[in-house]
Model the fold of this input.
Amino acid sequence: MSENVGIVIVSHSADVARGTALMVEQMVGREVPLGWCGGDPGGGLGTSVEAIMKAIDQAWSEKGVAILVDLGGAETNSEMAIEMLPEDRRSRVVVCNAPVVEGAVMAATEAASGATLEAVRRTAEELTPV
Amino acid sequence: MTIDREARKRLFETVARRVIASADELTDLDRAIGDGDHGANMKRGFEAVLAAVDELSAKNLGESLKGVGTTLVMRVGGASGPLYGTLFMSLGKSLADEPTREQAAEAFAAAIEAVKARGKSDVGQKTMLDVLTPVARVLREGGDDLTARLKATARAAAEKTIPMRAIRGRASFLGDRSIGHMDPGARSSALIVDAVAEFMEGLA
Done:
């Protein structure tokens, strides 16, 4: 179990999500639990609630999980996925209002320092370290 | 009205087949002002509903509707999955097995509020809400020729999204260029209302 906040990357494109995850890993290595997903349930461009729930599970940390999304549908589907989580986890997952690539890198860098979920979110949204 | 297992199955099949048959039209509308996936997404979701229709309609009306909603959330893929999923799940939460028109109208109004919250949207923003809201008003008023008026209201309300400027969703990126096109979500909502009204005519 990691001591750090987890990061989840949700894009309409699996390639964008995977590429962003690689950039995050290059910055913070394996210090931050990371999950990513992209593509709709049929394999095309889009997002999938089921895949987002799996990614949250993969990145799960007792300190919480910050989700970075690209376009509208990714945000709506992420919010839906959070609501479908077990009740004790719901309040510990947030969607950050930040660009997906820059936000993920900033959030992960902050998370790697052991910051709280709220600080991680704030850093992603302001795109400067707290 | 009594909505037994057979009726529930017929309801879900009527709605699903209507959406699936209109997938190309929805995609064309979405290609004009969105990302062109609304038809394919809705088709995938309602094909999943059709595939599980026996299982879904076996439970009482509330649980059946929740099941349809969950299927749409999991299978549609675009933002319309959570939006339509929320609509059906909310209806399932509040509808009794044999709803009166008043109860149905109340449940529908509550479901619209849930969709507004999910999409952080409201009437007048060129979305499905611009169809669902006037339809809810007609349902609440009741009166003669109700199903015909529900259909006509839905169709006219979808048309009324043509001159609107999109404020939510992908179409909002287009700003003024979203004007002049019917909103795909408004159109899919009108199709669903039309199918439900057709189902209600079969009950009477």
The longest helix of chain B spans residues 184-203.
